[in-house]
Amino acid sequence: MPSTPLFVLVAGEASGDTLGAGLIRALKTVHPDAEFVGIGGPKMIAAGLHSRHPLERLAVMGLVEPLKRLPELLRIRRDIVALCRRQRPAAFIGIDAPDFNLGIEKRVKRCGIKTVHYVSPSVWAWRQGRIKGIKRSVDLMLTLLPFEQAFYQQHEMASLFVGHPLATQIYPETTASARQRLSLHGAPLIALLPGSRSGEVAAMAPLYLQVAEQIVQQLPGARFVIPAANSARWQQLQQLMAERPELPVTLLQGEAAAAMSAADVVLLTSGTTALEAMLLERPMVVSYKLGKWSYRLLRHFIKTPFVALPNLLAGRMLVPELLQDAATVEALSGALLELLQPPLHGEMVSQLQQLREQLALPSDARAAAAIAALIDEPAV
């Protein structure tokens, strides 16, 4: 390996830009003269990356938009592959964005270039057959969750659990300070997080508001807070709340973390929010509803016993999951009322603290050390 190693890194969205910036800084402590080129956003560029294309050109979602942009995406991919073949980097590092990066990794590994993928695809959860292609494309998988590493070990693939960066970025705030800052009063206080997408809010928010009505009937002093993910969701939620003017709900613009910290318990739609609530050590109930036919189609591909990340980490039903037909007003309100009771509430807070500690590792340094060890290995 040359004394001045070159690393090619490609991130596909803002979260990858944050991960990539931390990784670049950590790699510099191992190889101070290293050079970095590829695709990244402002954080990676500030850390020392020469970005050949704007990160925003890769940040496409849905089904139609990627098809519209396919010629451009293929052109960018060819450029990165050609760069690797020409410059022979010490390693190619794909950060998340598996649909884009795994294709590059497959091509450059064939050329004898070592490949790293940072953030595991959810292959452990569904479409597990993808592991065959991943093994052919990736020399080292860096995972954010411990059970992901166990999955790759079962398939005899090199991997390392490096910890989750959010666990060292999101810290619990005291309930009192969060309530004071948001001017929230009353107890118990329950946070309702119906989702960040329009379809999620349309499906889940009416149900959550019905749950609030049910709880108020049993606990007249109960209060609720809903943090809207953005201005569009704020307007959508405001319209739904207008149908229930007597319901004691405070609608916030953003402030999801503060709203959860202020709350005694949280009712949330499954997804990244469950991880955030866990890191904030807030007792929670997790729910989700798909369309009937979508659920029937997808359930055959899902291979995990749980959907909520705290349960996946704990290996048991730590937080209630009420999905599909089980997500009724009676079941959800009953689960929240039970969580408000001191014995169960305190026990869950303690368990969530332990899960948080499990993820709070120096992920940048661990990832950089693993990559340094990989590039020092002789080529096979």
Automatic annotation (TrEMBL):
This is Lipid-A-disaccharide synthase. Pfam families: LpxB (PF02684). Its EC number is 2.4.1.182. Transmembrane segments: none annotated. NCBIfam families: lpxB. GO terms for cellular component: membrane. It catalyses: a lipid X + a UDP-2-N,3-O-bis[(3R)-3-hydroxyacyl]-alpha-D-glucosamine = a lipid A disaccharide + UDP + H(+). Condensation of UDP-2,3-diacylglucosamine and 2,3-diacylglucosamine-1-phosphate to form lipid A disaccharide, a precursor of lipid A, a phosphorylated glycolipid that anchors the lipopolysaccharide to the outer membrane of the cell. GO terms for biological process: lipid A biosynthetic process. HAMAP family: LpxB. The lineage of its organism: Bacteria, Pseudomonadati, Pseudomonadota, Gammaproteobacteria, Cellvibrionales. Keywords: Glycosyltransferase, Lipid A biosynthesis, Lipid biosynthesis, Lipid metabolism, Transferase. InterPro entries: Glyco_trans_19. It comes from the Bacteria. GO terms for molecular function: lipid-A-disaccharide synthase activity; phospholipid binding. Belongs to the LpxB family. Pathway: Bacterial outer membrane biogenesis; LPS lipid A biosynthesis. Gene3D superfamilies: Glycogen Phosphorylase B. SUPFAM superfamilies: UDP-Glycosyltransferase/glycogen phosphorylase (SSF53756).
